[in-house]
Specification:
The protein has about 650 residues and is of the alpha+beta class. About 35% of the residues lie in helices and about 15% in strands. An eight-stranded antiparallel β-sheet has the order 15-14-13-12-9-11-10-16. A five-stranded antiparallel β-sheet has the order 3-4-6-7-8. The longest helix has 18 residues, at about 200-215.
Length: about 650
Amino acid sequence: MTEETENRFDWQQFLRRWQEEWVPGEDDMEDLAEGGMTLADLALAAPPAAEAEIAAAEERLGARLPPSYRRFLAASNGWRLDGGSIYRLGAAHEIDWFGDPFGMTPAYQQGLTERSTEQEVLLAGMWRRALRLETDSDMSYALLDPGDTDEDGEWALYVYKGWSGEFPDRYPSFRAYMQRMYQSFHSERAGIPGFENDTTRALDADVERAREEALSGRWETARELLAEAERYGRPRARGMLQQLAALSHGVGHGYYGFGELVADPRCTGELVPVMAAAHLRDERPGRGPHRFVLGTETDDGVTAAADEILARVRDRTYRYAPGGAFGQAVAEAWQSARWGDTDRAWRVIRAALPSWSPPGPDLLAPVGLLGDPVLGPVVTRERGLELLATPRAGRPGPVPDPVPDLDPPGLCWLAETLRWNAPYGSYRCLWVEGAEPEALPGLVGEDGGAGLTAPPLRPDGWFPYDVRKQRDESAPWEDRAVVAVGRTGSGWAFGHDTAPRTSTPGDFFVSPAAAASRDGRAVVLWAHRTRDGGLTLFHLSVAERGEELYAYTLRGTDVERSGPVPDTLDPERVLRGVGEADRERCLLAAVQDEFGLSLPRHALAEGILPQLTTRSWNRAPGEGESYAYVTVRPVRRL
């Protein structure tokens, strides 16, 4: 706020409008009913202070008052604040220096360090130099700080609630504080029947305009309009604003409440799944489920539908299924994403966005995508912004440039270090040529296993694979892989294990390639790295029609071979002249070029692919063979 802007601000008009819009609250109605008060007693405004009164106060205080507060006194010498913990701002002759009567300064100064911000230093010194404005409150104080000023001479205003134990709220000026109190006044009365005035009518018109702006792809303009309307508590603004927030942040960020929109049955399929997914991300393993709060009163039908949606999102059977042409595109995209092709899935959704139409009047976008366990992770922050910028529901407008695809081609991305979802860089993979993903259980699944299963829910901050627990009740020598199952663009079914339980293939290792190759070719790859990213092992085995064709295992510089390994894959040839840092990348490049293999990084990182528990990658020890293992358990000290 510049001084010129402050000079143009009409305090008399602002305060008069506030007074004219005021209606009694519940407490005021009780006072009026009991006869202890009249409407005149409950007036917010006071007569203006004369210049001489303001000057006398400044002389008494020994300081010139900041511009916005000075002009306020000239319009109303004090003010009754109806709401909040400050009840009344005093007249010019009533204000005085605070003087830190409660000894707050030492406590705040004690917390300062060399890393403290300028604002923290200012706050620590505020208590002794602040000017106290309030004359009636709930153990709260309105304090103007002459040490915290801006270029226009405005003093920051702090509201300290003595009972809260919290830091005081800071406002950059007295005017900013009063405007926020005016907004709070409106917000507290927004639900009162008949609370209608020029301000509410103008804000509601802005909300309707924001709806059109959002559907036309001008979502940032819509966000500004809705944010202002929400500060005044306008009923429709919050639900719309939260839709924009959800999509502009992408899946997995925060919890979104959509206000009264949730109570509309037409909006249930778009909004409740998003809330359910956020609710489940807040749960932690080992703790019981906590209550699913919709944030508004709903009828029995919406409540029952929400409970059913929560159960389906929890067991990952929920599917976002809008109607019309957009719904058909969503179904097609889901089929692509479920096996890992999230880039194609997004392209299908993106092309169909103009055909989306809102099932409810205040829905702005297909936000329900974020609640789908498969499609939700497809909508990253960048894609959510692209969605919001795309005109929808028949609105005209320019289409934004498409965001780049997420998945790199081939396999070389596996050589990247410090991948958050692959502890220490170990991984193993299986590809079967020409097979559908559903066929993998019959080829390599454990006997009597459940087949393909939904991936487990992953709370915020947890790995998609928890490597700290035993995966099954197998014998010590067994090594059953839990692989994420999908399909490559070239038509190979794959299984990928990000966190192998055992460190490396040992003497009892039997590649599953032969079993997987019953009807064609199969490729198995296993890599292991140290904590600092060094490659310690690289295994490749290839089979066809149930017979292993060739294999090699590279440990350091030693190579164990079986069968005629092609020159294009032979590690000694591939790694000739290659530095240590590029060994893994070169080996992966040779495999991907030989077979046209790939893996979908985004789907694997997000943990959205179905899972399969395979048969053991180790054989049982034979007669006379020994197998040693160590079990480490924590010891609890008494």
